[in-house]
Amino acid sequence: MRDVRIWVVVICAAVCIAVEARAADSIVYTVTQLRNAMNGADPGDRIYVAPGNYSSRLWVQDVHGEPGNMIQVLALDPDNRPVFTSNAASCITIYNSSYILMDGIIAYGGGTPTQGSNNIEFPYGHHMILKNSYSYDIDHNGNTDGVKFAHSDNILMYNTKIESWAEGGSAIDQMISSNSLMMRNTITFPDMSPDVAANGTQPKGESFENGYYKNTFIDGSSRALQFGGSGGALHWEAWDMVAMGNVIDGGEASVAYVSSTTSVFDYNTIVDPEIWIMRILREGGDQQTAYNTFRRNLIEYGTLNRIQNIGPNTRPETFDYANNYWYRWTNPGGSIPTLPGGETNPAGGTDPQLDAEYRPLYGPARAYGAHAPAMEAAWEPYTDWFAWAWAKALEYEPDAVAGGEYRVAPGLTVRLDAAASTAGSGSYGDHTITSWTWDIDGDGVFDDASGETVELSFDDLAAMGLSPGTHQVGLRISSDTEYDPIVDWDLADLTILAVLITGDVNLDAKVNVTDLGALAANWQANGPEIGWGHGDFTADHIVNITDLGAMASNWQVGVEIISVPEPASAALLALGALVMIRRRTRR
């Protein structure tokens, strides 16, 4: 048996050495070197692209990593990313490939008016990641896209910026695309000419089960976030799409449903669209646009052509319009529109007071839009559609954890603790949380305290205007990545009691067996850290018979049903017996 174990150890060590030896790092300085490195790469290899201008097309095909061992193409210096350009075709084409990560790449000027092409494209790819990259300045009017995923599935595009693609193309074009996630990207076209068909997102040609999460669209083209298109589908161009947590500021139309069905547009923030809020059109396939959603969105708008642009052969009355917050700043009293089929529980009419991060400061508006507390829970069920991409994105994501539930009473302090928050990681290692800021008074501004942990007294909270009752405190963290910082938020409940009841260890306004258990668990504990939460009610930093007696005097205060024959003496004897049993057991 011992010999078998030795051989197992030897074999495992050999396998580990072989795997480590197979993975290799290399640095490239030209397009030819990069092409050769990718064509010769083994799963797990990391190819670093040196700073510089790469002015000819990169085309590779049939390059494959493995699950858990992606081939990684990374900027050697995140502060000086490599720049790819091509005046005749796409800048970067990775064809019929899989399990490849591209991180920190810049591409501009791809394609021609007659050839089309795109800045970056992954045709016939699967399990591919594009992150921390930048596609910009296609200076012609052809059907040229910032990024294109055609005949692709299981794609993640994360924290990438697309700016000023071709007038006639899309920022992100997804032709026959499925099970993919576009997350934390920025899409902007500030200098777009009027009356051109430039889309932000366009999943079409029978695309399905794609997600759009926490993206930002600034002057995001004629149709910022579009479900469907005109890709030659037989039936619907797109179905089972979901968009949540997105901010759409400006552009001609915020959302367009085009030959699509069962697509979800919920919990998004829309600001000042120029012509319409939504378009409902049919441009492909033999089925009518129907059965989509528009729910829990926050819409701030002014003068429009109209709320909706409804084309022929569509069924807008089948849409689920529900629980949206509307604010028309040119006519607050007329904020809530009439939608086909009617809207369930609309709200609005008061300025949501959006801050620089598009978070509403007006209390009733906070339950709507991209930053609503319920948004992430609403998003979660849809992540099964793009499970691989979502799992990868979570590796990069910071996660703010505000802790709690917190409780405090007169004479005591409460310690807010965000230590469970995480910064995420990237291609170059773990990220770092650089700031923790807190909104304690509930005004939506994170300026009341800073730090991973914060100690506050009952009097401190009173000075902030917090009265007894349950409140929500907010936490904002900023994670320092190799590129731009990424922020995340969380909320926690804080209950302030009006009266402190001796014996109530957990501050739930009752003295019962839960408190007794806490006291027993800390029996005779002593030291400067020992306090009320351990069962020390006399502030002498030790848990002893004095504290037990104090608890007995209030036994079952706050409990609805009390049945004790002789309250004080009987309770004290029972409690003392329990504690003594515990002491003997410890010995």
Automatic annotation (TrEMBL):
<dbReference type="GO" id="GO:0000272">
    <property type="term" value="P:polysaccharide catabolic process"/>
</dbReference>
<dbReference type="InterPro" id="IPR013783">
    <property type="entry name" value="Ig-like_fold"/>
</dbReference>
<dbReference type="InterPro" id="IPR013424">
    <property type="entry name" value="Ice-binding_C"/>
</dbReference>
<dbReference type="Pfam" id="PF07589">
    <property type="entry name" value="PEP-CTERM"/>
</dbReference>
<dbReference type="InterPro" id="IPR012334">
    <property type="entry name" value="Pectin_lyas_fold"/>
</dbReference>
<dbReference type="InterPro" id="IPR011050">
    <property type="entry name" value="Pectin_lyase_fold/virulence"/>
</dbReference>
<protein>
    <recommendedName>
        <fullName>Ice-binding protein C-terminal domain-containing protein</fullName>
    </recommendedName>
</protein>
<feature type="domain" description="Ice-binding protein C-terminal">
    <location>
        <begin position="563"/>
        <end position="584"/>
    </location>
</feature>
<dbReference type="InterPro" id="IPR036439">
    <property type="entry name" value="Dockerin_dom_sf"/>
</dbReference>
